[in-house]
Amino acid sequence: MQFRSIIRIVGLLLALFSLSMLAPAGVALIYRDGAGVPFVVTFIILLICGFVCWFPNRRQKRDLKARDGFLIVVLFWTVIGSAGSLPFLLVDSASVSVADAFFESFSALTTTGATVLVGLDDLPKAILFYRQFLQWFGGMGIIVLAVAILPMLGIGGMQLYRAEIPGPVKDSKMTPRIAETAKALWYIYLSLTVACAIAFWLAGMTFFDAVGHSFSTIAIGGFSTHDASMAYFDSYAINMITVVFLLISACNYSLHFAAFASGGVHPKYYLKDPEFRAFIFVQVVLFLICFLVLLNHHSYDTYYEAFDQALFQSVSISTTAGFTTTGFAQWPLFLPMLLLFSSFIGGCAGSTGGGMKVIRILLLTLQGFRELKRLVHPRAVFTIKLGSKALPSKVIDAVWGFFSAYALVFVVCMLALIATGMDELSAFSAVASTLNNLGPGLGEVSLHYGDISDSAKWILVISMLFGRLEVFTLLILFTPSFWKN
């Protein structure tokens, strides 16, 4: 293990992250809300810490191995999540505890969208912008941005990329060089953010709200600048724009790359992809169920309102964004539970969505059907195909391993929450929301997470990290073989 090289890289990344504090400081200067000093102080502290980590190890430029990459990713998200809590602690108007500050920072960076803050409408613009900006950064992953820069500093990025990018097949690259891949991802990410911000602004949002909500929409984060979330705007147009960009962001970014690489949008790249077709199928089914149940219970006065609410909430929850336009926890209990379970599916692999990813659920389903066929025809040989390609057994084994680990982490975190005194429904929904990087829950956490105990918040911070790093990246550090030479 190249520990000095790892410390050097983390120091560089921490110094790069410190630059992000200048953006909210600039917002504070523009709006003159008096919250700029904490961000300047945080910038100086993080820059110094990064320099202290980098300078003694500046000559350590050895090649990284795969397990070095895993350790760097875990260290980086842990360090950056912790560093991101400083502004919340330093801003007087936020008035949060240490546990609250860490919870809010990790929730933003992991794009979970669970919040402990109330009275958002009265907070300084700088704090509101910072929350949205953290989500935007975390959405694609700061590591992916960094691997476009690190090669210029003499550091190879493939090990970081393979540890960071989600999905069952991590060796595939859209372009021959990893730096070009990272740049391509960020060009697409930035373009979608700009397009979303312009659409929100044209639909009636203020410039500040349009930019902030475009950050959290493309990142599939769910933070808002208002306590009422999207309900604050009470606009069908804004709801529809949000739905469209959430669906786009929940698709595999390699599909976006393939579609745009030839000079224009070609639907065939999407329609040929089995995961994309499964994703759209799930979205349509969820919407129809929500719409029909709401109509049956006469939850809204008009068909159009029921249509709008069913479409928005089904897409928002199932893609793990967590935006709300209504108290969906007040719907017939069947629907909140259905949508909460749908967040386990989440977005496509290689997207900014959370959950276990559509491709894994699709492969588990195909495996289940294969086992049923084997019961009928014990001597027959059945292969699992994704499209026209037969998948090797090691891929299926990896998916089952991931599913088992995901379920284990869920159960352990849920039991830990119940041990803190939380009721069963709240504990179940809180872990589901944080592990799937969703945000809103049921019971005690239906509105916000500010009233739960500090010990419960720390457990949920760990759950967020497990979800963001797709379980194995973090879990592998607890295996003895990882640390053996």
Write up this protein:
The chain contains 23 helices and 2 strands. The chain has 485 residues and is an all-alpha fold. The chain has a domain at 3-178. The protein has a two-stranded antiparallel sheet with strand order 1-2. A hairpin with a 2-residue loop joins strand 1 (385-386) and strand 2 (389-390). The longest helix is centred in the C-terminal third of the chain and has 27 residues, at 393-419. This is Trk system potassium uptake protein. It is a multi-pass membrane protein. GO terms for molecular function: metal ion binding; potassium:chloride symporter activity. It comes from Vibrio ezurae NBRC 102218.
Beta-strand share of residues: under 5%
Which sequence of strands runs across the widest sheet?
Answer: 1-2
Mean pLDDT: 87
**Which ranges are low-confidence, i.e. pLDDT below 50, for 5 or more consecutive residues?**
146-150, 152-156, 166-171
Strand tally, please?
Answer: 2
The major sheet is characterized as: 2 strands, antiparallel
Radius of gyration: 22 Å
Q: What is the terminal-to-terminal distance?
A: 7 Å
Structural class: mainly alpha
- Helical stretch tally: 23
Helix content: 55-70%
Shape: globular
Order of helices and strands: HHHHHHHHHHHHHHHHHHEEHHHHH
Question: Which structural traits does this protein have?
Answer:
485 residues, mainly alpha, two-stranded antiparallel ribbon, 23 helices, 2 strands, globular, ion transport, cell membrane, cell inner membrane, transport
Topology readout:
Layout: H1 3-18, H2 22-31, H3 36-54, H4 66-83, H5 86-90, H6 98-109, H7 125-140, H8 142-146, H9 158-164, H10 178-202, H11 207-218, H12 236-249, H13 253-261, H14 267-271, H15 274-296, H16 303-318, H17 334-342, H18 358-376, E1 385-386, E2 389-390, H19 393-419, H20 424-435, H21 454-468, H22 472-475, H23 480-483
Antiparallel strand pairs: 1-2
Helix pairs in contact: 1-3, 1-4, 2-3, 2-7, 4-6, 4-9, 6-7, 6-21, 7-11, 10-11, 10-12, 12-16, 15-16, 15-17, 16-17, 18-19, 19-20, 19-21, 20-21
